[in-house]
Amino acid sequence: MRVFINAACMVFLMQAGLAHAGLKVFACEPEWAALSKELGGEHVEAFSATTAQQDPHLIQPRPSLIAKFRQADLGICTGADLEIGWLPVLQNSGGNPALRPGGAGLFFASEGLDMLEIPERLDRADGDVHPQGNPHVHLDPRNMIPISKRLAGKMAQLDPANADVYARRQATFEKVWQGKISSWEAQAAPLKGVKVVAHHKSFSYLFDWLGIVEVNNLEPKPGIPPSAAYLNKLLAELKTEPASMILAATYQSNRPAEWLAERTRYPIVILPTTVGGVEGTNTLERLYTTMISMLLKTAQAESSS
Amino acid sequence: MRMFRIGALAGAAFLLLMPSLTQAQNGGSGSGFNPKISLILQGSYADYSEGDSAVRGSLLGGESELRADGFSLVETEIAAEANIDDAYRGWVTLGLHEHDGETEIDVEEAYINTLSLPQGFTAKFGRFFSDIGYLNKTHSHAWDFIDQPLGYRVLLANNYRDDGIQLKWIAPTDLFMEVGAEAMRGASFPTNCEDCSGINTVTVFGHLGGDFGTDTSWRLGIWHLDGDAEGRQSFGDGATNEIFDFTGDTTRSGVDMVVKWAPNGNPRECHLIVQAEYIIGDEDGTLDFSDNGTLGAVSSAYEASPQAWYGQVIYQFVPRWRVGLRYDWLETDNDLPNNPAGQFNNLLNNDDPQRISAMVDFSRSEFSRFRIQYNRDESQPGGEVDNQVFLQYIMSLGSHPAHQY
Questions:
Q1: Which one, A240, B78, B371, B385, has least CB within 10 Å?
Q2: Of the ranges A2-11, A87-96, A101-110, A128-137, which one carries the lowest mean pLDDT score?
Q3: Average pLDDT estimate for B125-151
Q4: What is the helix (H) or strand (E) element at residue B108, kind and residue range?
Q5: Are A174 and A167 in contact (CB under 8 A)?
Q6: Which residues of A touch B266 (CB under 8 A)?
Q7: Residue B85: how many CA atoms within 13 Å on its side-chain side?
Q8: Is B8 exposed, middle or buried (CB count within 10 Å of its CB: 0-12, 13-18, 19+)?
Q9: Confidence band for A95, pLDDT divided at 50, 70 and 90
């Protein structure tokens, strides 16, 4: 027991000594780890709990995640119930009061944004719907500006010694980002009105931003994988309202998309829904650039064929 | 006894809870502060070729019998949780089940846990499932099979849960390291004190865990439970009124391990879970045998050191479909010097009960599951093979369930 107390005291001293070395960030998704690095640079040590190959709805509170959660100064999650299956477990067992519900170290990116697809009724018969709306807000890069403002404020509050660094870097980020949004929008103009079938409602914010039309989904209801009967029905519907490509995320099964592609001859685009999803998407900027160029390439190949 | 058998109360509890359920869903005024409530409906169809609830060489605790033959509601569970304020969170699970033709309300868990202790400490108090073992904390609706492993059924009456307090500490390291201890009333098996006073059961446990690359995660555990039993009652097979009454020291110790694998750590498409636990018990005291209420008719010194082991594999090969295989083994080793008229014969049957189970389950969404399971059970006193077949459903209504590790 004495050894245990000594160990606990040493840990206390160690932590007290390191308290101002910067911020340890626990990001629920890779895009928030990337954004915190944009704003914090070397003052931030960011860990992402998930990768682009993992479905953020279906994460298990693994021991390694509890261990990282325990040590974090700042937790950045999407919110809007995206992490409802696992974040509460980390909060209950992670022993980190800063990141407890309502804790000063917890930041939800979707707070205060205009959410898409807020359900008019809440019924599980509609699938795994999110009461606060579609949570995949990061796929509209315009959302990054208000999020980065709030996040820089939160980082300054938690690490006042570097407050001016965060403010300065946020201002630079915002300026550069505005320019990039304009150039992406110009580049993506041909995508306006393009009709697509998406696996899950993962891309609604991207479509909303670029004017892409989602005519149908591979999932009959959010979170419910398609059955053969449903896919046949979808196939019939696509005869009357055709699309020009099928989109899936890197963490979703290709099988339903391949089934449909075989019968409709639509090309499949596996989009990286977040940072690190495919080769060359290791920053936020590269993520949007890559998504747009993948979509443009497919759309141009389609229109020329 | 923590059960109260008042059917009317069960109805009243439902009536009280239902308005808040509907309000929470409609987002009515003020309902934002209502606890997150979920109802879990479980039912089964069971068929046994033998169906003896006793286990060879073992003294069982309460609630350890086989599921009812034929159709039955296994359990209807109401769970509610909410943050109490910025420092505490509360959780309650009420189980409603049938017992001898009456509906019982069982306060399965009712505990508070702290959210704001510094330096990686958390405390929990009230009634809760102990953190010993890997499966002990798991509620029946989250089990991978319809029943617990034999070792859990025989040595912990399926789950050890009790009234008390728990303190846990997590190390600030990337390798997950956790140690904890619990001080409990001792009202549950394996102590079951009738007139409890003070602390009758204490436990300690430690866990290590982490990832191997992105695909694999693991956890190892070690634990010990130490209790004083006074008048702990176990029943003989249901046909008679035999009661075994144990007084003495009782301990349980165990190690557990689980490894989970999913390509890219994404369990949506494909998921493999391999787990195994070993439990060893030790009992030292006296055993009184009674028939038809004449306690103390025969008494003997009693020493036992049962050991149990199980290993299981669960494999989700496509989204929504899982198959599972489990092997259970139990070794009983009992010493009862006084056995004048063969009252303790079942306990002196010191061979090794075992069981093999196979299951397939299907989950349309995260909220529903159907399961079919077969057990080849060679643990019953007669020594015959019991072929057991189960069909089961588990449905969750209301708020989103938390994922388990």
A1: A240
A2: A2-11
A3: 96
A4: strand B102-114
A5: no
A6: 53-55, 58, 251
A7: 1
A8: exposed
A9: very high
- pLDDT tens-digit readout, A273-293: 899 988 889 999 999 999 999
pLDDT bracket for residue B239 (50, 70, 90): low
User: The sheet that has A106-108: what strands, in order across it?
Assistant: A44-48, A23-27, A74-77, A106-108
User: In angstroms, rounded to a whole number, what is the distance separating the alpha carbons of residues B370 and B368?
Assistant: 7
Give the C-alpha separation, B55 to B353, whole Å: 8
Tell me the nearest-neighbour CA distance from B326 into chain A, angstroms: 22
Task: Check residue B226 and give its pLDDT.
Answer: 97
CA distances in angstroms from B305 to A284, B59, B158, B224, B247, listed in the order given: 60, 12, 18, 14, 15
Contact A8 B265 (CB under 8 A): no
Chain A residues within 8 A of B208 when measuring between CB atoms: 63
pLDDT at B366 over 80: yes
B207 touches chain A (CB under 8 A): yes
pLDDT value at residue B21 = 41
Per the CB < 8 Å rule, is A63 touching B217? yes
Count of CA atoms in the C-beta half-sphere (13 A) of B343 = 23
User: E strands within B115-200?
Assistant: 121-129, 161-170, 176-184
Provide, as residue numbers in chain B, all residues whose Cβ is less than 8 Å from the Cβ of A223. Answer: 365-366
Question: Is residue B25 less than 8 Å (CB to CB) from chain A?
Answer: yes
Which positions 268-307 of B are in contact with A (Cβ < 8 Å)? 268-269
Residues 65-84 of B with CB under 8 A from A: 83
Helix A284-304 and helix A163-187: axis angle, to 10°?
A: 0
Answer yes or no: are the C-beta atoms of B320 and A225 closer than 8 Å.
Answer: yes
Instruction: Decide if B119 and A8 are in contact by the 8 Å CB cutoff.
Output: yes
pLDDT tens digits, residue range A107-121? 999 999 999 999 888
B176–A66 CB contact, under 8 Å: yes
Name residue A217's amino acid: N
Across the range B329-355, mean pLDDT stands at 87
Domains defined along chain B, listed by start: 49-68+111-387 (2.40.160)
List Cβ neighbours of B45 (8 Å cut-off, separation of 6 or more). Answer: B70, B71, B72, B390, B391, B392
pLDDT tens, A202-224? 899 999 999 999 999 999 888 88
CB atoms within 10 A of CB A90: 26
Domains belonging to chain A, first-starting first, are 18-182 (3.40.50.1980), 188-304 (3.40.50.1980)
